Amino acid sequence: MRLGDLVPASGIRLRLSSTEREGAIGELAELLAAQVDLSADLVRAALIEREQLGSTALGHGVAVPHAKLAVARTVGVLGLSEGGIPFDSPDGEPVHIFVAFISPVQGGRHLLALAAVGQELSDAEARRRLLAAKSAEDVHALLDAVPAR
Known about the structure:
CATH class: Alpha Beta
Number of strands: 6
Low-confidence stretches: none
CATH architecture: 3-Layer(aba) Sandwich
Order of helices and strands: HEHHEEEEEHHH
Shape: globular
Largest sheet: 6 strands, mixed
Strand content: 15-25%
Helix content: 40-55%
Structural class: alpha/beta
Number of domains: 1
Distance between the termini: 8 Å
Mean pLDDT: 92
């Protein structure tokens, strides 16, 4: 799985307006809900419930809010925050790149999605290019350009 497969162009928010954790999760939940025709409140509650188990921030300005719900397929969205949002990151740095996703309760696609985020966003140059993108289409093109592993 690649981020380009997980995140459709319609699931990209170039600039999140929130400056705090719950607001960012709410914005991401709205994007996710639109992708799978679920209530944004349901998606937000699932993401927050998972976040309460421990921060999904990976460090280096990346976080991966995620949850399992009654959906047919794994779907993700990507949001960027220019100023960064405090997210209890292991390195103490604010998060600038959010990849949120929901997966079916059964199956292993959830782990594949987590692995894709970790692999593709571990590269500092890839993160820099995403943050410098001027449009959602540019972001999706960057995600789509990553070769399948």
